[in-house]
């Protein structure tokens, strides 16, 4: 198809619709790929000139009709997405089949929530899924809708409806709502903002139920804080499922670094760089590669592996040897307790100070459908780090705060939601809700988990310190290396038999 537009002509159309000339024009290459239907979808007075141009460019690129998008990776080649990748490939195939008329919409999924740390590539994932399916991507967020006009309730709701109407016009398409947690949870709204915020959530629910759009729109939500989202938003028929994207493994990080390096360092083994990067995200990898290239460029030479290693491990603030030892003991504590409870430990790592996390223990944990005994084991593993610090160094640090938060949430759900405590009553707790004082049964559950972890580690203190010392030296330990160090630490057959017997008689969540 021959292009009928050029960049100047599109700028004039945008100015006519939005009332202002865009600050940046499309390239002629992208402009030639624009079709009249694209203008109807992308341009709107409330969106503004610059945002309309951005939407138009994204619409053309996601459809794959512009050679300017050829440098984007394929969804199937992406590393670090875990279960989201399998889901995305399946949904993209269904969406493409629907677009061809080979599959009814009733057989397709309606959408999903992607939950992951910042920089994990949730927005990129949605774009690549759309490109894989050969359909447009329509993207928006509450912040974008509130920025239209003066941010009054009516303007925000109108902008939201425009987004869903655009998605309906572009169908079949992928519609991405970024930062979905920005809507919040109606059960936790402060009194002074409750009316406004509740009406925004209600407006979203109305749009999600189809009053503003039509079938053949795959909805994807993205969030860094999924527990803050109103449960009504996430129910089946709106966002059918929640998919948690884990932090990349060392193998994933090596693949991500390789992607961003392109032909640079083609003969180098990136294993050490990946291990140093443990705890980082895809966005971190891209930033490290950019900085490494910049260092080489300023030196007037090609990039070397040392540039990359330096930028990954470049300290934001020096970490002492004592701090590194505490981190190693903490992670080794998780691993020893997991081993004693017959759980698989995939890898341990202490990354460079530039990485987001201070340490990383990849342990095969349980899903949320387990028994009381299984959840007790999970609590015990979560306390392994704090227990190790206390036993060897005499006192814990604040580094266990994340473990404590997860353990508290788990113990609370055992007693309050799942009927796995002393009572059978079940009450769902609002996202972000907390008690000024933790109820005594929950505190007792946490204390029991901590005491079990301490008992395991006191019995195997020698193996704990041996594993921590090895981690300090090598900075990364794989499954086989961990297993060789802990070969004798799991000699707890009688304990495991007793726990298995208890597990058979233990109620399971949902019963």
Automatic annotation (TrEMBL):
In the record, biological process GO terms are:
protein catabolic process; proteolysis
Query: SUPFAM superfamilies recorded for this chain?
Result: FtsH protease domain-like (SSF140990), P-loop containing nucleoside triphosphate hydrolases (SSF52540)
UniProt entry keywords in alphabetical sequence: ATP-binding, Nucleotide-binding
The record's annotation in CDD domains points to: RecA-like_protease
Q: Which GO cellular component term is one of those annotated? A: plasma membrane
Nucleotide-binding is among the record's keywords? yes
Q: Which Gene3D superfamilies match?
A: 1.10.8.60, P-loop containing nucleotide triphosphate hydrolases, Peptidase M41
Q: Where is the AAA+ ATPase domain?
A: 108-249
- SMART domains assigned: AAA (SM00382)
Q: Which PROSITE patterns match?
A: AAA
Provide the GO MF annotations for this entry.
ATP binding; ATP hydrolysis activity; ATP-dependent peptidase activity; metalloendopeptidase activity
Pfam families named among the record's database cross-references: AAA (PF00004), Peptidase_M41 (PF01434)
Q: Please state which protein family the record places this protein in.
A: Belongs to the AAA ATPase family.
Full protein name: AAA family ATPase
- Native organism: Methylorubrum extorquens (Methylobacterium dichloromethanicum)
Taxonomy of the source species: Bacteria, Pseudomonadati, Pseudomonadota, Alphaproteobacteria, Hyphomicrobiales
